[in-house]
Amino acid sequence: MAAEETYLTAEGEDALRRELQLLKDSRRPALAQRLKEAAAQGDLKENADYHDAKEQLGFIEGRVLQIETILRNAIVVDNSESSDEVRIGSTVVIQEDGIGEGEEYRIVGSAEANPRERKISEKSPIGAALIGAKIGDKVKVKTPDGVIKFKIVDIH
C-alpha cells in the first residue's frame, strides 16, 4: 500500500525541519541526560523523575519519526508564480454569502494545518471546496451545521 501524498508549502517544510533539528539537537539529549540521572537514583519502580523522563522521551521519539516520515514523503508545493485560482499555498479571502467581512485563510497540506493560525488543510471541507476556485466564484461547503455558501473575494 502506497503512502498517502502529503503536501507541504516551502514554509511548512522549513518549520518541520527546524522542529526536527530542535528535537534531535536539544530536547532529546536533554531528556536522555535527565533519564540517566534519574536512573542513577536507584529504585526505578517508584522513581517519578525516571518515569516522567522516559515518557517524555517516548513522545519526542514518536514526533521525530512522524516528522521524518512526513518530510520523506512530502510533495513540496512551489507557489512562486501567482495564480488566479485557489491551490495549496494560496491565501484566500472568503466572505460568507453576504454576511460580514471577508475572512482570510491559507490553504496548506494536512501536515501543517492549524486553524488557530487560519491555516486550513486542502482536505478539510472548506479547503477542498476552495481548491480550484477563482475570484468571484461562489462555493458551497457542507458542514455539520448545514450548507454554507462562500464567495471568493481575493487570492494571493
Protein architecture, described:
- This protein has 156 residues and is α/β, with parallel strands linked by helices.
- The chain has two domains: 6-77, Helix Hairpins; 91-155, Transcription elongation factor, GreA/GreB, C-terminal domain (Chitinase A, domain 3, Roll), CATH 3.10.50.30.
- It is 40% helix and 25% strand.
- It contains three helices and seven strands.
- It has helices at 10-39, 48-73, 125-130, and strands at residues 6-9, 74-77, 91-96, 103-108, 119-121, 138-143, 146-155.
- Strand 3 and strand 4 (103-108) form a beta hairpin.
- Helix 1 packs antiparallel against helix 2 (48-73).
- The longest helix is centred in the first third of the chain and has 30 residues, at 10-39.
- The two termini are 36 Å apart.
- The model has no long low-confidence stretch (mean pLDDT 90).
- CATH superfamily of the largest domain, by name, is Transcription elongation factor, GreA/GreB, N-terminal domain
Q: Strand percentage, roughly?
A: 25-35%
Strand order of the largest sheet: 5-4-3-7-6
Number of strands: 7
Order of helices and strands: EHHEEEEHEE
Low-confidence stretches: none
- Give the termini distance in whole angstroms: 36 Å
Structural class: alpha/beta
CATH class of the largest domain: Mainly Alpha
Q: From the coordinates shown, what is the CATH architecture of the largest domain?
A: Orthogonal Bundle
Query: Could you say what the CATH topology of the largest domain is called?
Result: Helix Hairpins
Radius of gyration: 21 Å
Helix content: 25-40%
Compute the number of structural domains: 2
Task: Name the shape in a single word.
Answer: elongated
Quickly count the helices. Answer: 3
Overall pLDDT = 90
How does the major sheet shape up? 5 strands, mixed
